[in-house]
Structures are given as C-alpha cells and as structure tokens.
Design brief:
Blueprint (H helix, E strand, L loop, with lengths): L14 H14 L16 H11 L2 H27 L3 H25 L5 H25 L4 H43 L3 H15 L3 H9 L2 H9 L8 H11 L3 H9 L2 H10 L5 H14 L11 H20 L3 H17 L2 H8 L2 H8 L9 H14 L5 H7 L2 H8 L9 H21 L3 H9 L2 H10 L8 H17 L6 H8 L3 H9 L7
C-alpha cells in the first residue's frame, strides 16, 4: 500500500471532536450512494447547483474532499490489517464501506468541479470499476468456507487492494494538482482584490495539509505566482497573507528552488528594507527568511543570492527586533536571525557591528517582546553562536548578559506542555554552552562565579528533574562547570570536583545519568 497518499495531515484535535466531524461522512455511506448529489427532478437541477456552489467555498470543498480521502486511506490500511488476520467478514464489510466512500467522494467532487480533465474522468472510472471488482471478490470469499481456497484467493485480494490504493492515490494527486492549478490561475489572471484574497486563503489552507501538497503547489508555479503579488503595489494589503503562504510552501526543496529561480531573496530583502511596509508585512517576510534558513533543512546550499543580500537582511531584522510591538513579531525576527547565524558565520560579525547583542539583551527585560521560552530560545541561540567571537565577551558584560544567562539556567516550563518543555531544555543547554564559550575570557568567568553560576550548574548536573532529564543539558552544564572550575576551583566542594570535574567528561556524564535524587 505504498501508493497511499502520505500527505494527509490534519490538525491535532480532541478525538471526540474528530469523531463528531467524521460521523456525518461515515453515516453518508449507509445511504444509497447512487442517489447522492442528484437533483430530485430535472427542473430543479440549476437551483440545486446554485445551492451547492454557494453553500461551500472552494476551501470548504477541498477540506471535505481531504477528510473523505483521509477516511478512505485509513480504511484501506485497516482492510490490509484484517486481511492478514483472515477476518473475511470484516474485510468484506469494510470493502463495501470503502466502495461507498469512494463513490461519495467522486460525486461530491464532481458537484463543485466543473472543468475536470479527461484523464481525471478516466481514473474515476478505473477506480470505481476496481472498487466494484474488489467488493464482488470479497463477497465470494465470505460465501466460501474452504480454507485452502480462501488462502489461494488471499494473494489476489491483496493485489486488488494494492491496485485500488494505487488508483486512489493517483486520482487524489490529479484532483489536488487540478485544484492548485485553478487557484494559481485565479491569482495570475485576477485584478480583483476579493478574488485574489479568496484564492490566497484557499492556497494557504491547501499548503497546511502537508509537504506533499506544498510540492504540488511549487511544481505548478505557486512560488512565482505569489512573488508576482508581492511585486504589485496594488495588493500591498495582501502581502502578509501572501508571505505566510510562501513560508508554508518553502518548507520543501521544490519550493526553495522555485524561490531562488523567482528572485525571491531580493524581493524579500526589498520588502524588509522598505520602511513604508507595515510591521505585519515585515514580520511575515522574516518568517519566510526563518523558514528558508532553517538549520533543519538540508537543501539551503543553492541559496547563493542570500549571501549577496545578507547584510541588508540582517540589518532589517535587527531593526525589527528593536522596534517589535509584540512578542510574536520579535519571535519571527529573532528566529530568522538565529537561523542565519547557523547559515553563515559572517552573520555573527555583522550582528556585532550592528550592536545586536545590546538590543537582544535589552529585549529580554521587556516582557512585551520576550514573553515565552520560544523567544528566549532564539535569543540564546544567537548569543551562543556569537560567543565564538573574541569581541563578544566585553559586549555581553556591558549588557549584563551573564546575569541573563544565569537566569536562563533556571528556565522551567510552567504549563507542562511538551513543546514548551523542549524549548526550556534548549534554553538551559544553550545558556550553558554560551557560558562555557565566553568563560575563556577571565573577566566573564569571574563575573559568572560571582553570580553563583557554579552552584546552579552543579544542581543541574546532579538533579535530573532540574534539567527535565535532558542529556544535552547535562553535557553542556558539565562543560561549563569544567571551564569555570579552571578560574575558581575553590568554588567547588571536593566531592563535586572529584565527580564532576576531575574524571573524563564521559565518566562524569555516566555518573550523573545513573544518579538517583535524594529527597532527604
């Protein structure tokens, strides 16, 4: 079943809520599918078509289609599982249900799609015929009690199931490609603000459904079409929405290639440096920069034009951090800067020249800007990457940065949310890494010792709950502790020195990971 669409992505919602949403779709299958989407009489046909088209927007129809497709792909996977267990009755009943779902999906799609291709109609017929054949095949199985005969039929059923899945996957691919083409055609040809905004909204919803959908949009020229909007002054109020859609599409390699080909970096640099644009537009442009420079992506090497415009972009992003009116804007701008410091080491030197260290340290004391562990994660990432420069030490002392790093060693999640807890771990780890790097400067090391960094590092090493059982935090803290111990060995008790500093790092690590907390 490798041909099943792997891109079906839905927001995580409560299971009961999901069940309620799907109940109607599941119940529809119990109806006579041949009657679905049919007018009661010929005279009412035009009226019914009008009702159908006005009842749902393109976005709603696509969501309905994707939900139906997700149900079908799930059912096909379950059929394969039941087939392996020789649950013939279940296999047949589920096959009937899939048959109904497929017919419903095709009827629903054809009710709002008026210009589907001949190739699509051919695949619809192939899929419907194969589903009917599959249903008939499984019906013969439940009427047959000969185990040897059933085992002999099993491979044929599996082959038919694979073919159904293949045809289904190809049909969904055609449908989604067709819808992406329609939306992009609207963007390309429309001069109407309302039509363009509606097409953008539908395209953004489509891009949210996963990487596969983003590849389809990029392949059909979506990136170029979106940058075309960003170059038209008449659509300025749609720039934030357009850039948000671009950020989604550029999570895939095809999107990145198209961005480079469309001269997207220069366009983004122009938007960021144009002071006449709104803060929302600047923030969304920063989000695109953050996406395309993400260190998690392995295909950024071709962004040669980024280096040509890097100084302009970095300057604009620092200014956006300084002037951000909300935590969200600061987060997007600082995330872009953090990623750029991984992308190219020259960025750290530019940041130092722009006094970025002082701006970021000052922002951390402003709760309107830095209000979450996610924002602090971006700031400390920038500090950690900048700390490789020798000039950084004096800057961080002047900005009271050692105190900030000490506070970050106490970062803990208050909500219990796993994503927030992971961000807190990264903050602890990177603050320890920054301390270790900066402490090669005696003045920084002395300041860290005075602020009682050593006891806190020891606590993080010895207490798993303080570091949320994170091994990466432990390693960083051990490295920072060893660096500070060179400057102030008297700050450690003999037991701490013997266990956490004197042995090899790996031995201290193993000792701490096996250590049981004392609750006395």
């Amino acid at each position: 079943l490798s041909s099943l669409p792997s891109s079906m992505h839905f927001m995580q919602v409560d299971s009961v809520q999901r069940w309620m949403e799907e109940l109607k779709l599941m119940a529809d299958c119990e109806c006579m599918c041949i009657l679905q989407s049919k007018p009661i009489s010929m005279e009412k046909e035009e009226e019914n078509e009008l009702l159908l088209s006005s009842q749902h927007s393109t976005c709603d129809n696509l969501q309905l289609l994707l939900k139906r497709a997700w149900i079908i792909s799930t059912e096909l996977s379950r059929i394969a599982q039941k087939l392996e267990k020789n649950r013939w009755q279940r296999v047949h009943s589920m096959t009937v249900r899939v048959n109904c779902h497929v017919r419903s999906m095709i009827n629903e799609y054809n009710s709002f799609c008026r210009n589907s291709s001949q190739e699509m109609h051919q695949f619809e017929k192939l899929l419907l015929d194969k589903c009917s054949e599959f249903t008939a095949f499984t019906e013969r199985c439940i009427q047959n009690e000969d185990e040897e005969m059933l085992q002999a039929m099993k491979s044929c059923i599996h082959e038919t199931l694979t073919t159904v899945a293949q045809y289904f996957g190809q049909l969904i691919e055609l449908v989604l490609t067709h819808e992406a083409q329609n939306l992009l055609r609207q963007l390309d040809l429309s001069d109407s603000m309302d039509i363009t905004e509606s097409a953008l909204s539908s395209l953004f919803s489509l891009a949210q459904e996963g990487a596969h959908l983003c590849r389809i949009i990029a392949k059909e020229g979506g990136v170029a079409a979106l940058f075309k909007i960003c170059r038209q002054d008449g659509f300025r109020c749609l720039y934030p929405q357009t850039l948000r859609t671009l950020a989604s599409i550029c999570c895939v390699e095809e999107g990145m290639h198209q961005l480079e080909k469309a001269g997207g970096i220069l366009c983004l640099a122009d938007i960021l440096t144009d002071t006449s644009h709104s803060e929302a537009t600047h923030a969304e442009a920063a989000a695109v920069i953050a996406q395309i420079t993400s260190p998690q992506l392995t295909f950024t090497q071709h962004l040669s034009s980024f280096l040509e415009n890097m100084e302009e972009i970095v300057t604009a992003l620092v200014k956006l951090c300084q002037e951000a009116s909300s935590g969200e804007v600061f987060l997007l701008a600082s995330a872009a800067l953090a990623n750029i410091t991984f992308f190219d080491t020259m960025a750290c030197e530019i940041l130092l020249q722009l006094n970025a260290m002082q701006i970021l340290l000052a922002a951390c004391s402003d709760r309107h800007k830095v209000d979450t562990p996610y924002s602090r994660d971006q700031v400390v990432t920038i500090l950690a990457n900048m700390s490789v420069l020798d000039q950084c030490a004096s800057e961080i002392i002047q900005g009271n940065g050692i105190q900030l790093l000490m506070e970050m060693l106490f970062e803990r999640s208050s909500s219990g949310n796993s994503s927030e807890a992971a961000a807190c771990e990264r903050v602890q780890q990177k603050s320890a890494v920054t301390l270790a790097r900066l402490s090669r400067d005696p003045e920084v090391a002395e300041a860290a010792v005075k602020l009682s960094c050593i006891p806190r590092l020891i606590k993080l090493c010895r207490s798993p709950t303080e570091r949320n059982n994170s091994d990466s935090v432990l390693v960083a803290c051990l490295a920072a502790l060893r660096r500070l111990a060179l400057t102030s060995p008297q700050g450690l008790e003999d037991a701490d020195f013997q266990q956490l500093v004197k042995p090899r790092l790996v031995d201290s690590f193993l000792l701490c990971t096996n250590m049981e907390e004392s609750f006395v």
